[in-house]
């Protein structure tokens, strides 16, 4: 790994770390598309079909956009403008991936009166996060002459962005408490645990070798657990012996 950089700069991975960053998400593109197709095939009504499309698009987009960004960052380093736009897009997709991951639960499970509003609140949260990334993500570049105040603002923007991800990831989970049917809750908690644990590596570039690639693996594990829960409890046909 390379040396850790100031908080107002972006860490520059080594060649091996670049390769790992690409591979650890590229490997999940085809499985995510296949898994999304399975949910679509298992859909029995309009809402299940819509939810399968939303979730599948969010899941596949996460891995596809991340892979494209890391590939451009590795192989086309002279395309700084393109790389910056893809980096922003990569961060924006995370908001919509979170919203898409909740969509099947919010659309297909019975919710309490207040919790039903979360179906559209979560997309407003994703839109706000996207606007925030557009206007504030890495607006302050790393330069030797960077003013202390500008560096402080950059650190603040990155912290706010991280807090936004955490809030959006946990706040909609509160609606689970209003669901009469709580099947799948252990899987949702387990997936959330892996996301949270992975965030330790997300902020450890320059401290832990291959930290970002390890973060990618935790994301893949968390997404896999959540996919299993959606397939198992919302889409998989019940056996005759199973209680409804």
From TrEMBL:
Zn(2+) binds at residues 70, 212, 216. Keywords: Membrane, Metal-binding, Transmembrane, Transmembrane helix, Zinc. The keyword Glycosyltransferase does not apply. The keyword Transferase does not apply. GO terms for molecular function: metal ion binding. One of its GO terms (cellular component) is membrane. Signal peptide: none annotated. It comes from the Eukaryota. It is a multi-pass membrane protein. It is found in: Membrane. The chain crosses the membrane at residues 20-41, 53-72, 92-108, 120-138, 159-179, 185-202, 214-234. Its main location: membrane. Belongs to the ADIPOR family. This is Monocyte to macrophage differentiation associated 2. It comes from Malurus cyaneus samueli.
């Amino acid at each position: 790994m390379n040396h850790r950089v100031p908080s107002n700069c972006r860490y520059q991975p080594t060649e091996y770390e670049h390769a790992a960053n690409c591979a650890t998400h590229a490997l999940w593109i085809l499985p995510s598309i296949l898994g999304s197709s399975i949910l679509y095939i298992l859909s029995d009504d309009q809402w299940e079909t819509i939810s399968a499309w939303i979730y599948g698009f969010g899941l596949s987009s996460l891995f596809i956009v991340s892979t494209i960004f890391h590939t451009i960052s590795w192989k086309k380093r002279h395309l700084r403008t393109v790389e910056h736009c893809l980096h922003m897009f990569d961060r924006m997709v995370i908001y919509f991936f979170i919203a898409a991951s909740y969509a099947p639960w919010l659309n297909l499970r019975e919710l309490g009166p207040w919790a039903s509003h979360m179906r559209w609140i979560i997309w407003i949260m994703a839109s706000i996060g996207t606007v925030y990334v557009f206007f504030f993500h890495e607006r302050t570049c790393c330069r030797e002459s960077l003013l202390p105040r500008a560096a402080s603002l950059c650190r603040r923007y990155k912290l706010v962005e991280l807090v936004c991800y955490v809030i959006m990831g946990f706040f909609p989970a509160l609606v689970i408490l209003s669901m009469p049917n709580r099947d799948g809750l252990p899987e949702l908690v387990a997936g959330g645990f892996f996301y949270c644990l992975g965030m330790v590596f997300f902020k450890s570039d320059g401290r832990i070798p291959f930290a970002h690639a390890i973060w990618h693996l935790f994301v893949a594990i968390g997404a896999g657990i959540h996919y299993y829960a959606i397939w198992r409890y919302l889409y998989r046909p019940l056996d005759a012996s199973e209680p409804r």
